[in-house]
Amino acid sequence: MLSKEKDVDEHITNISSYKLSFFQKLVLCRGLKFAIPKRVSPIDVKASFEKAYWKLEPNLSEDLRDLTASTLRSLALNYIHRKGPKPPKTLLKAIHQLK
User: Residue 69: enclosing H or E segment and its boundaries?
Assistant: First the structure.
């Protein structure tokens, strides 16, 4: 990640008359494929884990089915309720301004 000590201007050629802020330049320096991941809905997460169980179920013995189902359910709930790192508000603001 670039910091204010590094010169972001060496990576950006602005041919418009619009004056870019430091954070807008920082976003542009990350490249065309840079994106902030979208949050996945809890229903989609549960459905994905349920599909995984259905694929595993025929290969499981009777005593492993309950354990597998509860483990996958626990993993799905942990994934849904996890708190991931959020991008800084200044970065989000710069992305919105560049739109």
Answer: helix 62-81
Give the integer Cα–Cα distance in Å for 1 and 91. Answer: 12
Distance from the Cα of residue 26 to its chain's centroid: 18
Domain limits of the chain? 8-98
In the 8-state DSSP scheme, what is residue 87? P
Please enumerate in sequence order all residues whose Cβ is within 8 A of that of 74, keeping only pairs 6 or more positions apart, or say none.
none
The pTM of the full predicted model, rounded to 2 decimals, is 0.54
Token pair for residue 4? 């204010």
Rounded to an integer, what distance in angstroms lies between the CA atom of residue 11 and that of residue 80? 38
* Amino acid at residue number 3: S
Digits of tens for pLDDT over the chain (99 positions)? 444 555 777 778 888 898 988 888 888 888 888 888 888 889 999 999 999 999 999 999 988 999 999 999 999 999 888 877 788 888 889 989 988
The amino acid at 50: E
